[in-house]
Specification:
The protein has 321 residues and is mainly α. Helix content is 74%, strand content 2%. It has a single domain, classed as Rhopdopsin 7-helix transmembrane proteins. Helix 2 packs antiparallel against helix 3 and helix 10 runs antiparallel to helix 11. It comes from Pan troglodytes.
Length: 321
C-alpha cells in the first residue's frame, strides 16, 4: 500500500493518545474499490432490511408474541446494531470517504463491536434455554418463561455484555501507541489496538482472555449441554415423526449458533496464528466475522421457521398488491 506523506505522518509512531489510526481495506486493490463497494453495499442493505423485517413481523403479528420470538427479536436487534456500528468505516473506505479514524471513535467502535458480540452469544444461550424448556418441560413452558422473566433476561444480557467489557475498553484511552498506527481491519478491535500499544497491556490481555472464557466459551459449553439434554429427551420419544418435528424446532437455532461461532473462532485463530497470512486475508476474515451472522440469521429464520416464513410471504404479497 502506498501512503501519502500526510498519511504517513499521521500514522507514524508516536506516544500521543489523540492521534489517528489508518483503517486497512484490501491492500493493493485500491483501484477495484468501486467494484468491491457494490457487493458490500448490497450485503449491508440486506443486513439492515432483513433484520428490520424480522423485527417488524414479530412486532406487528400478535401470534408471534411468544418467548421464542421475543428472543429472536433480541437477536435481530443485535445483528442490526452490529451492522450499523461498522457500516460507516467499512463502506467509507470502499467509497473513498474516510481512511483514518480518531482514537476516541476507534475505542467507541470497538466497545460496540465486542459488546454486541457478547450480546449475540448471550442471546443464543437464552434461545437454547428456551428450546430446552419447550422440549424437555413443555407443560411448564409458559409459567417459566413469563413476560417479566424475559424482560429480566434481556436486561441481564445487556448488562452482562456491556458492563464487564467497560474497564479494558476505557483503559485503551490511556495507553501510549508508539507503533505505526495502521489497523488490521476496516474497523476497530480491542486486540488490534493492543498490538499497536507500547504501554503495559497485561491487564487488558488477561481481562480480555477472562471475558472470552467466562462469556463466549461458557455460553458455548452451556449451549452444547442444553442440546445434549434436548437430544436425550427427543430420543426418549417413541414416534419417529414426533422426533423429527422436535428436531425441526431446533434447526434454526443450531444454524445461528454455527453462523456465529465459526467466524469468531476463525478470526481468533487468524489473529493468534495467522501472522504469516496476507493483510487481505485478515481483512476478509474480519469482514466475515462482522457481516456473516447479521446477514444469515434473518435468512435462516425466514426459511426454517414456519411462522416467520408465512408472515414474510404475507408481507411481500401485501406490498406486491
Amino acid at each position: 500500500m502506498f501512503l501519502s506523506s500526510r498519511m504517513i505522518t499521521s500514522v507514524s509512531p508516536s506516544t500521543s493518545t489523540n492521534s489517528s489510526f489508518l483503517l486497512t481495506g484490501f491492500s493493493g486493490m485500491e483501484q477495484q474499490y468501486p467494484w468491491f463497494s457494490i457487493p458490500f453495499s448490497s450485503i449491508y442493505a440486506m443486513v439492515l432490511l432483513g433484520n428490520c423485517m424480522v423485527l417488524h413481523v414479530i412486532w406487528t403479528e400478535p401470534s408471534l408474541h411468544q418467548p421464542m420470538f421475543y428472543f429472536l427479536s433480541m437477536l435481530a436487534l443485535t445483528d442490526l446494531c452490529m451492522g450499523l456500528s461498522t457500516v460507516y468505516t467499512v463502506l467509507g473506505i470502499l467509497w473513498g470517504i474516510i481512511r483514518e479514524i480518531s482514537l476516541d471513535s476507534c475505542i467507541a467502535q470497538s466497545y460496540f463491536i465486542h459488546g454486541l458480540s457478547f450480546m449475540e452469544s448471550s442471546v443464543l444461550l437464552a434461545m437454547a434455554f428456551d428450546r430446552y424448556v419447550a422440549i424437555c418441560n413443555p407443560l411448564r413452558y409458559s409459567s417459566i418463561l413469563t413476560n417479566s422473566r424475559i424482560i429480566k433476561i434481556g436486561l441481564t444480557i445487556i448488562g452482562r455484555s456491556f458492563f464487564f467489557i467497560t474497564p479494558p475498553i476505557i483503559r485503551l484511552k490511556f495507553l501510549n501507541y508508539c507503533h505505526f498506527h495502521i489497523l488490521s481491519h476496516s474497523f476497530c478491535l480491542h486486540q488490534d489496538l493492543l498490538r499497536l500499544a507500547c504501554s503495559d497491556i497485561r491487564f487488558n490481555s488477561y481481562y480480555a482472555l477472562m471475558l472470552v472464557i467466562c462469556i463466549l466459551l461458557l455460553d458455548a459449553i452451556l449451549i452444547l449441554f442444553s442440546y445434549i439434554l434436548i437430544l436425550k429427551s427427543v430420543l426418549a420419544v417413541a414416534s419417529q415423526e414426533e422426533r423429527h418435528k422436535l428436531f425441526q424446532t431446533c434447526v434454526s437455532h443450531i444454524c445461528a449458533v454455527l453462523v456465529f461461532y465459526i467466524p469468531i473462532i476463525s478470526l481468533t485463530m487468524v489473529h493468534r496464528f495467522g501472522k504469516h497470512l496476507s493483510p487481505v486475508a485478515h481483512v476478509l476474515i474480519g469482514n466475515i466475522y462482522i457481516l456473516f451472522p447479521p446477514l444469515m440469521n434473518p435468512i435462516i429464520y425466514s426459511v426454517k421457521t414456519q411462522q416467520i416464513h408465512t408472515r414474510m410471504l404475507r408481507l411481500f404479497s401485501l406490498k406486491r398488491y
